[in-house]
Design goal:
With about 500 residues, this protein is an alpha/beta fold. The protein is built from 18 helices and 20 strands. It folds into two domains: about 260 residues, Aldehyde Dehydrogenase, Chain A, domain 1 (3-Layer(aba) Sandwich), CATH 3.40.605; about 180 residues, 3-Layer(aba) Sandwich (Aldehyde Dehydrogenase, Chain A, domain 2). The strands form five sheets. It has a seven-stranded mixed β-sheet, sandwiched between helices. Strands 9-8-7-10-11-19 form a six-stranded mixed β-sheet, with helices on both faces. A three-stranded mixed β-sheet has the order 1-5-4, with helices on one face. The longest helix has 22 residues. The protein starts with a helix and ends with a strand. The structure holds NADPH dihydro-nicotinamide-adenine-dinucleotide phosphate. NADPH dihydro-nicotinamide-adenine-dinucleotide phosphate binds next to α10, α11 and α14.
């Protein structure tokens, strides 16, 4: 109780005073400008335009990146279509060799990729180093293993690749989302045109360099950088047979409308507003770590983030006391510091969106809690935040904030927990914390969510399918399901 009255900060700072431990950046060479990666070469954009990509922790421009227009996109799709003829006929074993090579090179260049990801996107180095890059390499490794076993993956069926895959990815896990998209596509014999997000293009361009290093046949992977209009040109190109998109529900709907009736195969991985449900018999300290990981991991820029905490009423007080105390120990700041837990918000626009939604929560009557922490003077930052007294109707309980902001709601019975958890237009993920295995199974059956984590949260594995219900999209990525999204079966 003493902790609940004097939450966190003082105690946290006394216990957790760390010296700075910055990751070195001198091994990384970021070019002043980048071209498009088309047909195996870096080519100047037809548009002649470039845009700046900024380090969100310092607001410094890292590089100027080419902006692809429709002509550039057409060149990329043509290169991918040309490459498809030979790539799709290559034996599975030979395709596997290239994909294994990509995985190995990513591992060899892991440090460079992690630092680049952190500088361009703002995420803590410990996350890009220990999660993003190893998982991205693991996806290539996993799908390389399927390339020569497609007949076993789809027994008694004849799998055929779909052609050129148009892939548009967001800024929250740039390299990992690239891996989720490119690895299964190549394993199944497709070629790709990928557009990374405007604010985080650099790791995709480093991957283009890795494709050259791996001697990947020209045109199998093409990377076109640009903004939303470039993405629209990629998914709208008539030469594309498959569209895979990860991003906001709003843009996902636009893409579904744009591709309707075109015959293009489509998978959409969209937003979420996941419930993380804690029952009174849950191991509380473990649950606290799961809640923190669920919402503050990657600054909450996570589509499956546990942004709605549902707590059984009988334990809400001790749980909140422990959670607030734990928040005081989170280190917010320089993403390149190996001790940092919460890095920079990805962009000014995203910071403004978070601030707007947080203000709406205060105006609607929720109670806000933020630990005291010193934030750097430059860059985009937001303190880890908890809202209590939240009604289900509040915007902070309904809309995807995509920031380090947790809304706490309560329930009394398991039925009420399920009802509240499913009371959302989304259905991407959920979490449950309880000592009872039978309750986990009971709850999982009733949750309308693509992934339900039990006594853990935000765990990913290349072998495990991931995707949503309702407005969180359709189709699955990862595992055999992810491979199935890139083949036609006859
Ligand atoms: P978007 O959905 O706009 O961006 C995702 C990707 O789609 C980016 O590469 C983007 O390019 C591209 N894009 C934008 N418009 C189009 C279009 N009309 N056709 C094809 N591609 C397009 O997300 P934002 O970055 O704008 O973020 C807005 C909100 O979306 C966030 O605040 C968050 O709530 C949510 N979001 C959810 C994600 C998720 O995984 N669930 C991921 C990212 C965002 P560009 O980067 O240049 O805009």
């Amino acid at each position: 109780m003493a902790i609940a009255k004097r939450p966190s900060t003082e105690m946290g700072q006394r216990l957790f005073e760390y010296a700075a431990a910055p990751e070195a950046t001198d091994h990384l060479k970021i070019a002043d400008s980048y071209a498009l990666f088309v047909g195996g070469r870096f080519v100047e954009p037809h548009s002649r335009r470039r845009f700046a990509t900024v380090n969100p922790a310092t607001e410094e421009t890292l590089s100027e990146v080419a902006e692809a227009d429709e002509t550039d996109v057409d060149r990329a799709v043509t290169a991918a279509a040309d490459a498809f003829r030979s790539w799709s006929r290559l034996s599975g074993a030979k395709r596997a060799r290239y994909i294994f090579r990509l995985s190995r090179l990513m591992q060899e260049r892991a440090r460079e990729l992690a630092v680049l990801e952190t500088m361009d996107g703002g995420k803590p180095i410990k996350e890009s180093r220990d999660v993003d890059v190893p998982l991205a390499a693991a996806h290539f490794f996993y799908y390389a293993g399927w390339a020569d076993k497609l007949e076993w993956a789809f027994p008694n069926r004849r799998p055929r690749p779909l052609g050129v895959a148009a892939q548009v990815i967001p800024w929250n896990f740039p390299l990992l989302m690239l891996a989720w998209k490119i690895a299964p596509a190549l394993a199944a014999g497709n070629t790709v045109v990928l557009k990374p997000a405007e604010t985080t293009p650099l790791s995709a361009l480093a991957f283009a360099d890795i494709c050259q290093q791996a001697d990947l046949p020209p045109g199998v992977v093409n990377i076109v950088t640009g903004a939303g209009s470039t993405g629209a040109a990629v998914v709208g190109h008539p030469g594309v047979g498959k569209v895979a998109f990860t991003g906001s529900t709003e843009v996902g709907k636009q893409i579904q409308r744009a591709t309707a009736g075109s015959g293009k195969h489509l998978t959409l991985e969209l937003g979420g507003k996941a419930a993380n449900i804690v029952f009174e018999d849950a191991p509380l300290d473990q649950a606290i770590e799961g809640i923190v990981n669920g919402i503050y991991f990657n600054q909450g820029h996570v589509c499956c983030a546990g942004s709605r905490l549902l707590v059984q009423e009988s334990i809400v007080e001790p749980l909140l006391a422990k959670l607030k105390s734990r928040l005081g120990t989170l280190r917010v700041g320089d993403p390149l510091d190996k001790n940092t837990d919460v890095g920079a918000i990805n962009s000014r626009a995203q910071l403004e969106k978070i601030e707007g939604l947080v203000n709406s929560g205060i105006e609607e009557g929720a109670e806000i809690y933020q630990p005291e922490c010193r934030l750097p003077e430059r860059g985009y930052w937001f303190r880890p935040t908890i809202f209590t007294n939240v009604a289900q109707s509040y915007r902070i309980a309904r809309e995807e904030i995509f920031g380090p902001v947790l809304s706490v709601l309560t329930f009394r019975t398991p039925d009420e927990a399920v009802e509240k958890a499913n009371n959302t237009p989304y259905g991407l993920s959920a979490g449950v914390w309880t000592d009872k295995g039978s309750r986990i199974l009971w709850l999982v059956e009733r949750m309308r969510a693509g992934v339900v984590w039990a006594n853990t949260f935000n765990r990913f594995d290349p072998t495990s399918p991931f995707g949503g219900y309702k407005e969180s999209g359709f189709g699955r990525e990862g595992g055999l399901h992810g491979l199935a999204a890139y083949v036609e079966l006859s």
